[in-house]
Design a protein that fits this description.
Layout (H helix, E strand, L loop, with lengths): L8 E5 L2 E4 L5 H13 L8 H18 L10 H9 L3 H12 L3 H19 L4 H7 L5 H12 L3 H10 L9
Antiparallel strand pairs: 1-2
């Protein structure tokens, strides 16, 4: 897509493209139109890019990291990798996203717990350890607070059976 518009990317990573040259306003407008047509949007605001970097890193650490590397300090990791004080990152995140960075991390962890419960390959104790929870009780408390169900309730409700999406009425 970029080459078709005469643009030369020099660095492409998940969710981010850096171009070799500055774009004119008409090039930016054309790029925005092309991205929207593909279901994307360009984020050119520095703070918005920083928020996206925080989200990407949290998701990567929770959903795609080796389980032996899961015990770490969020404030240290994010501030070192993004080169900002954690308090600034946390305040910025809250003001833009509408929830605290801590809540976002918890919600991502709970989504991962749901996924792992769905596969039914690990015990709740293993899941708690895998995600860096201090105990099963801590995980269960956060899970119930976010979902309204205990992990066991979720497993039982899944055991009842699901309707195919085209069968839901």
């Amino acid at each position: 897509m970029f080459e078709k518009q005469g643009l030369q990317p020099w660095n492409v990573t998940l969710g981010e493209v850096q171009l070799k040259d500055e774009l004119t306003q008409s090039q930016l407008d054309q790029l925005d139109k092309s991205l929207v047509d593909l279901g994307f949007e360009r984020i050119d605001d520095h703070k918005a890019r920083l928020i996206e970097s925080i989200k990407k890193r949290v998701i990567q650490l929770i959903h795609h990291t080796n389980p032996t590397e899961r015990k770490f300090n969020w404030s240290t990791i994010l501030s070192e990798e993004l080169h900002y004080e954690y308090n600034y990152l946390s305040s910025l995140f809250s003001s833009v996203v509408g929830i605290t960075l801590e809540q976002y991390i918890i919600r991502q962890k709970i989504e991962r717990v749901k996924e792992l419960l769905f596969y039914d390959e690990l015990s709740l104790s293993q899941i708690a350890d895998l995600l860096g929870y201090s105990s099963v009780a801590h995980l269960s408390g956060q899970f119930k607070k976010i979902t309204g169900l205990t992990p066991s309730d979720l497993k039982k409700s899944r055991a009842i059976g699901r309707k195919p999406l085209d069968g839901v009425s």
